[in-house]
Each structure stands twice: as structure tokens, then as C-alpha cells.
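seq as requested:
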Amino acid sequence: MTGRYRVTVTVQGRPLMHGWWGSEATARRKFVAWIGEHGSRPGARVTLTDEETGETLTEWPDPG
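C-alpha cells:
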């Protein structure tokens, strides 16, 4: 079974990796970690989504 919270990394609009966690706190830690691991790639974007509601909880970089 997949978790409720999904973290996705895209690079220049193409999916690079994603993961699902049942705990929002765990997903948020992974979100921050993946920014550190992949944030220096040109065109990188990291998104945390609540799969139950469809809501984007946070994005990096901030779409402003």
C-alpha cells in the first residue's frame, strides 16, 4: 500500500524520482532531504502532495 504523502522531484519538467509516506512529518523530512540532494540541478522542483486531498502542501522553489 502506498502512503498518503507523496514527494516528487522533477528536473526541467521531467520526473526524476518520487516516494510515498504514511506520515506527513516523515514526508516533510524527505522533502527537505531531496532539496539538499537534487536542488542544485538546473530546473529542479520538489513537491509534497497530500494524495488523499490532492492538495500541494509545499513546493521548492516557491512558485511565488
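Strands lie at 5-11, 14-21, 44-50, 55-60.
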